[in-house]
Amino acid sequence: MENYYGFENGITGNELYQKGIKQASNLEIDLLKEEVVKISHLNSNFLVHTTNNQIESKVVIIAIGNQKKHLDIDGLNKFEGRGVSYCAICDGFFYRNKDVVVIGSGTYAISEVNDLLNIANNITILTNGNKPPDFRADNVSIISKPIKLVRGNTKVEEIEFDDNSSIKTDGIFIAQGVAGVTDLSKKLGLIIEKNSIVTNKDMETNIPGIYACGDATGGLLQISKAVYEGTKAGLSAIKYLNNRR
Ligand SMILES: Cc1cc2nc3c(=O)[nH]c(=O)nc-3n(C[C@H](O)[C@H](O)[C@H](O)COP(=O)(O)OP(=O)(O)OC[C@H]3O[C@@H](n4cnc5c(N)ncnc54)[C@H](O)[C@@H]3O)c2cc1C
């Protein structure tokens, strides 16, 4: 980080992050270092699903940055909406009793597999060359080979691996890496534009009680903007909580 006010010699992203975490700890703010895989509605509150916990909350501020996910698999883009999906809970019912694959190998991929378990017939986790997850279920198998291409006529039909072997499938769910802006937004029903969460000037999203800030809302990708929006989101959240009392 070269241009953020007060650091005349620059500071690495990690250093700045560690300083912020230390500052929060000093203020005795609870800190849970876990990956968020899903946020769902729970009556008038929200349930934040992490690797090992489910946390109920009246408000949620989404500040997860906006890491670009790119999967370089031949043919994948061509079938978006025609057998390629990014949200199991949103599109799973299209694949009732069908065979699907989930591309990914982390906690988020397993969360997507869990959402498909009682819907799809057979589920194959494709790690695309990454380490296979430690996960077992009757109708789930794992293939770790790198993927070469996706094939089909009007919709996805087959996946071919680097070693020229292939499997038939009715649908592909992309769940690589950690859950990002579009992944969390689609499941919650947040409006997104150009892969960013849409908010008003008070950082309110279209769902009361959910706020977003920083790179997650797009626009200028700079710390100064993230800090301003984080402050605004915090103040809006306090106002919302006070009004609910
Ligand atoms: C190489 C580089 C150089 C840069 N240089 C500058 C600069 O000089 N000046 C400047 O102003 N800006 C710079 N930026 C941009 C700046 O880093 C961002 O604008 C800023 O960090 C955005 O802050 P944020 O809090 O919105 O997101 P981030 O800083 O990206 O923080 C998001 C956090 O959420 C976590 N997270 C993501 N998904 C999940 C999940 N599912 N569950 C739990 N946690 C999750 C991430 O691990 C991360 O810790 C640079 C960026 C890069 C990549």
Compute the CA-based radius of gyration.
Answer: 20 Å
Distance between the termini: 41 Å
**Strand order across the biggest sheet?**
5-12-6-7-8
User: At the first level of CATH, what is the class of the largest domain?
Assistant: Alpha Beta
Find the CATH topology of the largest domain. FAD/NAD(P)-binding domain
Task: Give the overall average pLDDT.
Answer: 95
What is the beta-strand fraction? Answer: 15-25%
What string gives the helices and strands in order?
A: HEEEEEHEHEEEEEEHEEEH
Structural class label: alpha/beta
CATH superfamily of the largest domain: FAD/NAD(P)-binding domain
- Biggest pleated sheet: 5 strands, parallel
Q: What would you call the quaternary organization? A: single chain
Shape type: globular
Level of helix content? 10-25%
Q: How many strand units?
A: 15
**Cofactors, ions and other ligands in the entry:** flavin-adenine dinucleotide
Low-pLDDT regions: none
Number of domains: 2
